[in-house]
Amino acid sequence: MHCSAHPECNTTCIELFISTSSLPFFVSWLNPLFRIGYKRRLEEDDMYNVLPEDGSERLGEELQRYAAKELRPPKLTKVLIKCYWKPYAVLGIFTLIEEVIKVIQPVFLGKLIQYFENYDPDNMDALYEAFGYAAGVCLSTLILAITHHLYFFHVQRTGMKMRVAMCHMIYKKALCLSSAAMGKTTTGQIVNLLSNDVNKFDEVTIFLHFLWVGPLQAAAVLGLLWVEIGPSCLAGMAVLVILMPTQTMFGRLFSKFRSKTAALTDNRIRTMNEVVSGIRIIKMYAWEKPFSALVNDVRRKEISKIMSSSYLRGLNMASFFAASKIIVFITFTVYVLLGNTISASRVFVAVSLYGAVRLTVTLFFPSAIEKLSETRISVRRIKVQNTLFICGIIWLSYWASGRPISPEPVTHSKSSLLSAILGELPHDKGVLKVKGQLTYASQQPWVFPGTIRSNILFGKALHPQKYEKVLRACALKRDMELLPDGDLTVIGDRGATLSGGQKARVNLARAVYQDADIYLLDDPLSAVDAEVGRHLFEQCICGILKNKPRILVTHQLQYLQAANQILVLKEGHMVARGTYSELQRSGVDFTSLLKREEEGPQAPGVETESRSPCSRTLSQNSEVSHTTSIRSAEPVQTVVEESRSEGTIGVGLYVKYLKAGANILVLIGVVLLQFLAAYILQDWWLAYWAGEQEKLNVNGTVTVQNGVNVTEQLNLDFYLGIYAGLTGATLIFGFARSLVMFNVLVKAAQSLHNRMFNSILRTPVRFFDVNPIGRVLNRFSKDIGQLDAALPWTFVDFIQIFLQIIGVVAVAASVIPWILIPLVPLVIVFLFLRRYFLQTSRDVKRLESTTRSPVFSHLSSSLQGLWTIRAFRAEERFQNTFDAYQDLHSESWFLFLVTSRWFAVRLDGMCAVFVTITAFEVEAGSVGLALSYAVTLMGMFQWGVRQSAEVENMMTSVERVVEYTELESEAPWETQKRPPPEWPSQGLITFDRVSFSYSSDGPVVLKDMKAMFRPKEKVGIVGRTGAGKSSLVSALFRLAEPEGRIYIDGVLTSEIGLHDLRQKMSIIPQDPVLFTGTMRKNLDPFSQHTDEDLWNALQEVQLKSVVEELPNKMETVLAESGSNFSVGQRQLVCLARAVLRKNRILIIDEATANVDPRTDELIQKTIRDKFRECTVLTIAHRLNTIIDSDRILVLDAGQIHEYDEPYTLLQNHDGIFFKMVQQTGRQEAVALLQSAKQVSRVGVDGNLVIFETAL
After folding, report:
1. For residue 328, what is the enclosing H or E element?
2. In terms of pTM, does the model score above 0.90?
3. How many angstroms separate the CA atoms of 272 and 768, rounded?
4. pLDDT band at residue 929, thresholds of 50, 70 and 90?
5. What's the 3-state SS for 508-548?
6. 1147: which strand partners?
7. N or C end: fewer C-beta atoms under 10 angstroms in the chain?
8. Please, what sign has the CA dihedral across residues 921, 927, 930, 936?
């Protein structure tokens, strides 16, 4: 515990325990933890610090060292063996001791029973010998208890070390993945490696030693049995020998299924990852159903494989339980038929010896093979190729304070230029020299989970003055004041809680705060409005950074005049370079880019050459821009802490779990099967038979028949017949039960997964803003993984053991009623201990689940920001953070290991006492039965109690899944009230007193809004960052339910189903989202359109040529989230989707922020042509995209500030819109005024008429 008193004393305590590894320590040092756990819920602070030799960094480095020693590319398996064989081999001694004792114990037992069989009250020597044997039985029980747990603890710890070291290496590799390699793997795959594959190391270490102990032990047992019952033992061993290869075959089959399942699981998690990341788009497009079908399809295939492997497991388990019955049956049938008489001592020695070897041969040995083959597959999957980069391409050298700007149409070359400088793109020829340290602001802003301050500092020390200066330059000051905790506000995964503009500014601030020599800025101005853009350009790019070389990629041409060097790129070639005036004179294609600037008549007095770049104010208005700078900022949602249940797991949860798998009748049938398959009757019959034989031997009844003396014998046919019948019944019911149980439990996993997924699809968007993606994925990968594989096995095992215990107790009590006397208190103490243990253990298990989430979140956010992390040379820091998260998880895992040992040692200790009490009792047949049962019971009882605790621990996964099946749901997708099929025919939208907030307790972002958008009208919506522009769209799409009324063509939107509403409006979103899958699926997931339609749509948006160049054209599968297209191209795909949908209402949400003017013009033109008959609402930062709208709606702090034709708005010199236009620079402002004037002339006649009819 990090208890304030002595945290270090606890660590030493653990170290001491591990070095001495003796039992007293096992007992005492965990007691304080259990006391705390019994009183209250355990928290992370209660856990012990991780031991130095278990630290993630240390283990990873060690494995790395061994890998480095190999000359050629190292074989992972070889490296692992070299690293861990020594400490692991030593543990084999424990196994040996344990197995030897297991073989000797039955021999002692037999000798003891023999003494009672030949009981002679006068023979004192025999009595002392008997006492010796009794002591031997008790001692061996105690030693078994100790060695068993020491062995298990140490092998599991070795497994943990291997897993932690592997995770460290996987993450290290992930940080070095090249762009090409990233195209081949996906986040989902790497997350799956970390969540499922490395866990195989935890399992494999437990069983490996049995690969050599098993055959040795079998040989020893065979020898002893030969002495005891002669050649009959060979019959029994023959069954074992047949069993081994069949089980080995099961193992092989099992690993085949496992590798297929793993691939399907990867697939499912990848799809889930995309669904969760793109949930906003999926909801706005009403695409839930195709995605649901996609996931269900993969899941169905996955479940069919899991079902097959579960049936294998069921057979494996049933054969394990049946093996002993068959072996004993065959042995004794042969024994009796060979003319021997049965005796108690023989029966019990044989049964016990077979029991000892059975476990090893039929359970541990095959498990070892199965786990080994699974681990080999995992190791194969983990070998991610290291791909290293060589930098190259173009030689760029800039002198201090040079700032080249590269404007260029949408293709890859601008960002590619920067990625080449960063060394992210391998080159074909040429040299690239970079002197000095780089820093980089990416085009799609990247933030990682943590506070805003940690995102900006990015590992640098905090210098308050510098920090303030950076915040001011990046226009973040006002946002910080509005946030609940200022810059210490925690932002979620992908910065879900910040607006696009805020993310972009944080991303820029991070680059500016670093003290670098060269600054690479990839279009940092696109996500912000004109005013903020101007502020960033003047105060930050030309302010704080004015003495540094900066390379700025931008589409905003009004800033070109300030550049020292301009680089014009086109399709990967440099078309021109020089200063602004040089390029103007040379008349390259540059001028067509600048066409807009030139069209506006030159305002007198604006000269382009003379002034020194950047020093001049670009407009008289820049003073204003300081005063109004970012008045309003948007509300920020904070990330909620992951929920963690408390208390016991109720019966209700078990009922929910089982009912998910089958209906009540099936469950009742299963219960009946359980009891029919009682495994005990057969043993009882054997004991009864031996007893009857004993009576005959003692009384020696002789009858006289026809004058000949005949010794009376038992009716063999009768006894053997019943014995055979019981054995047969046991087998049939045993197998049936096992298979039925597995079937029910795997079905439960399937239906819970489907319910959880549907619940996730139907929950409001806000859920995804406040829950990081890693947390949702954790439930879908780890928890569902538990439900698929581990839980059914443990559950069935527990039920079998439980029934066996009941059977054993019943038989024992029927023979020797007094055995119940010590049993009753024992059971009571056991149950109390179990309760006491579970109080703590459940919390430890829940902590283990919640401390795992950050590991995944950190991995997936690192993969998204790879370029940034590498540009800032922050790999080591991120690796350290990853190691810290791993260590936190190791703390809880280590606790989980030691607490279960604490429990098991106590149970075994009690059982040993129980055996000792039983050993010193009388009466031959019954002492044998009592003792052999006491020994069996001992093992079973503590295993049963531990499995029941294990089941309850695993039920926490069910609990976490069930919690997500009960999330709040948004309005229904379809309601009774369906709008008419051709609705909306006109496209008239009316807002009537609409207020909107993202959650019931969140701030109101739209306040009492009244507005009407007329049919076929083109409306521009502008406002500063955070004025509520995007919230207007959210209200229209009902991403959260607005207050007030919104009508479309007279239909109240809140009364119809969400799908009916959302399918009738098209949106081109702010962040274009593409999904993995073919290009066709991305355009038309429902397959509603013909090929011709699709090609025409691509033609309209000028993507046809791009798609035709792809290897399989329309059927080409895109990389994860469409990363093989540039942002602009992805935007065009979204436009093509809208073209296909042919809806009356189109909403464009800052869709052109990331594209250059030419693509922007293309998009605008397509919209004017294709959507002439539609109502179009455009949210924009670039005023030139909306200046030709019919009307412009100006929002400010969630209220309508102005709403009129652009020309009319520009007449009002106090209005916000007029000021925004002025801030674009004098030249641009004049051009905008001209455009507005032309629009107003055209629109004078038409508008009135439409307005009349609409009203």
Report:
1. helix 288-337
2. no
3. 13
4. low
5. HHHHHHCCCCEEEEECCCCCCCHHHHHHHHHHHHHHHCCCC
6. 1067, 1177
7. C
8. positive
